[in-house]
Design brief:
By secondary structure, the chain is α+β, with helices and mostly antiparallel strands. It is about 25% helix and about 45% strand.
């Protein structure tokens, strides 16, 4: 089992992308998803984009993560 986190591509340089994860930027390899573009959402696992996500699906997943975080704080 793996945990993939959705993020939004903000910049691409060659095979690497700067991806925003709710305000935290990380460098991610695009070797497994060369078809993505700036503005796309991707599912990231251990530093690799493993698939392009539909924006609606990505935003729903991020909201679920926020709900889990809120429940931990209670």
């Amino acid at each position: 089992m793996c945990l993939g986190i959705p993020g939004k591509i903000v910049a691409i340089t060659g095979d690497l992308a700067e991806v925003d994860f709710s305000g935290v930027a990380r460098e991610v390899s695009l070797l497994l998803c060369p078809e993505v573009h700036e503005g796309d959402y991707v599912l990231v696992h251990v530093g690799f984009a493993i698939q392009r996500l539909d924006e609606r699906e990505a935003l729903e997943t991020l909201e679920l993560f926020r709900e889990m975080e809120r429940s931990w704080d209670e």
